[in-house]
Predict the structure.
Amino acid sequence: ICSTGTGIVLKDPRNGRTWVFDTPLGERVIERKVKNPVWAKPDWAFIEEGQLPPTDPNERFDGFSLGDFALYMGEGYIIHGTLFPSLLGRRVTHGCIRLGDEDLEFVYRNAPIGTRVYLY
């Protein structure tokens, strides 16, 4: 069971830039795998919280939100863990695919780089 994108649109009140939090449908490929990943939070993560994006890049790093493993599929889309396992099965993400701990570890260990991922 997994969680996917909400479809919500977020608009930056300062400049009108918008983000749509959909999980893209179609075929993707596992490009990179990381154990204990660190997330470099994009601007939208701060705008969503009503904060200005930091000018210091070091203030963007988050070593806990992605879980123990991350499988990167390009364009910022990742298969990763969740802090909220009770929300698995719901459309609650910003476009990434969230898995529970056991499923995530299984996929990490068994899907080599180059594995095709079909999102439908």
Remarks:
- The two ends are 14 Å apart (CA to CA).
